[in-house]
Specification:
Layout lengths: L1 H17 L12 H13 L1 H26 L1 H6 L10 E3 L5 E3 L1 H27 L4
Antiparallel strand pairs: 1-2
Helix pairs in contact: 3-5
Length: about 130
């Protein structure tokens, strides 16, 4: 009978080893402050806020770069200089004005900002950031 008991004990140990362990659930946070701290920590809100603020600052730098350093170059070749105020007028029922210069300027700004963000993301990936 001792061999049977030994086999039974070994089977019980194997069952315990193979059965999934149930982790005790975390109790619900108590109070609004604790819930807020958990939200900030778990959802990564702080990182998101920092990224948003940095993105806004980088956007301002890139906009200044485009408007102050890059766009004056084509403006020097256009008569009048301020090409962003170029308007196309279509004489239909009193005239329709299209702000073509501003639209083209916004598209050029977007393309330059996109290229800068691409290079920042590429550098971030090389640095090991996700």
């Amino acid at each position: 009978m001792t061999v049977d008991n030994e086999i039974l004990e070994e089977l019980k140990k194997i069952r315990e080893a193979l059965s999934p362990k149930v982790e005790p659930t975390k109790p619900a946070p108590k109070g609004m402050l604790a819930e807020f701290k958990e939200f900030i920590g778990k959802a990564g809100v702080l990182g998101l806020a920092i990224g948003f603020i940095m993105g806004t600052a980088i956007g301002k730098v890139v906009t200044a770069l485009v408007q102050d350093l890059i766009m004056p170059i084509p403006g020097a070749f256009i008569p009048g200089g301020d090409w962003r105020k170029a308007i196309v007028n279509i004489p239909v029922s009193g005239g329709i004005n299209f702000g073509i210069g501003d639209f083209v300027g916004v598209i050029i700004d977007f393309m330059i900002i996109s290229v800068v963000i691409f290079f920042i993301a590429k550098f971030g990936r090389k640095a090991g950031m996700k």
